[in-house]
Amino acid sequence: xxxxxxxxxxxxxxxxxxxxxxxxxxxxxxxxxxxxxxxxxxxxxxxxxxxxxxxxxxxxxxxxxxxxxxxxxxxxxxxxxxxxxxxxxxxxxxxxxxxxxxxxxxxxxxxxxxxxxxxxxxxxxxxxxxxxxxxxxxxxxxxxxxxxxxxxxxxxxxxxxxxxxxxxxxxxxxxxxxxxxxxxxxxxxxxxxxxxxxxxxxxxxxxxxxxxxxxxxxxxxxxxxxxxxxxxxxxxxxxxxxxxxxxxxxxxxxxxxxxxxxxxxxxxxxxxxxxxxxxxxxxxxxxxxxxxxxxxxxxxxxxxxxxxxxxxxxxxxxxxxxxxxxxxxxxxxxxxxxxxxxxxxxxxxxxxxxxxxxxxxxxxxxxxxxxxxxxxxxxxxxxxxxxxxxxxxxxxxxxxxxxxxxxxxxxxxxxxxxxxxxxxxxxxxxxxxxxxxxxxxxxxxxxxxxxxxxxxxxxxxxxxxxxxxxxxxxxxxxxxxx
Length: 482
Description:
GO cellular component, one term: nucleolus
Keywords: Coiled coil, Methyltransferase, RNA-binding, S-adenosyl-L-methionine, Transferase
Number of strands: 15
Protein name: NSUN5 methyltransferase
CATH class of the largest domain: Alpha Beta
Radius of gyration: 25 Å
Distance between the termini: 82 Å
CATH superfamily of the largest domain: Vaccinia Virus protein VP39
Shape: globular
Structural class: alpha/beta
Family: Belongs to the class I-like SAM-binding methyltransferase superfamily. RsmB/NOP family.
Number of domains: 3
Strand content: 15-25%
GO molecular function: RNA binding; RNA methyltransferase activity
CATH architecture of the largest domain: 3-Layer(aba) Sandwich
Number of helices: 18
CATH topology of the largest domain: Rossmann fold
């Protein structure tokens, strides 16, 4: 019964906004984390179906002491899972109503004209095309090892190395104990879907990081020079932060922000295991960070991956904790507190238009705030969202805000001629970079130049859904000539 009580507690915590799935599972103290994570994830996936069954069977009316969360968990395992594992009165209660619940399930299938349980799910809940076929991506942690040594290690463990992939199709047909070097990212290995490496020595020692390919793009495209000062504005759980440290070769300084003490503690453990040095974790909302603080006077690079709807997180529910990117914090209302910069794992299936507008408003605010750091040279904005409102529309609005400004410049008469004086001219303040031209999926045509942005999806790039834009701050521009 402890499993179902723990799962119900996690569901109740989600409804209160106390955290995301992985965070709540981690802190549940239930000894079998993967078992609990799987049960909660599948219950959430079938949540709409379960609510319809509970209403049709009037289970909660018949059993006054049964909470809605516990009822969902029990009915999921009774009808869709591997059968009830508990004993005692809850098992007897569920079995007492089994015939009525099964009859209601049969009626639901007839109404929806389907024959399989899986067919009751909406396309996004069912995983969508290719969601279950997203490969297992393994980023080699170059702070501790190198790609060649990791390849040799897996070959000694019986895996067959097929070389560098030539196309996305090569990744699509991977099976068995075969793996490839990714065609785009030089330190990323690709294994067949569902390959479980959480108990592998390289993972437990921090030599490899299990991170989705799309989640590797932000740090890769930011590409800070060794010795630079970098801000990771939305840092937990730390995969991108450790990637930044590897690119920096542990030379420089990373400032990472998160609001939650427990997530910061988990992140600190992860970064230490990965061999990351030169980082400062701060329990602080990034929006409250003063760009004029001398501490950040040398920050030239910012990675901004703020809270979003998480609609691109196609497969996060099926993976064990820290197995891939963390999607974003669910909120019970459309209003977003300032602390929404920081993220916890959980995706929203279908956010309302009001919710999307609230998210977009927050995202525009935090992106504009990031661009205000005086020494900034390059910024990457990314989300695990598929919605234009959170992606191209946010970038387009901020570019319009930051695109140009009147500045006073010196005017010269021409080559070898005397200084003519000062003049006001309109010069750009930041620009959108044409990032990674070889990437196949580009931004939607929301504004001129939006194709410079990147998109990713399970169907087209065999990754989680993702969006990335690279922006650069401009100088004062060339002096006007007369």
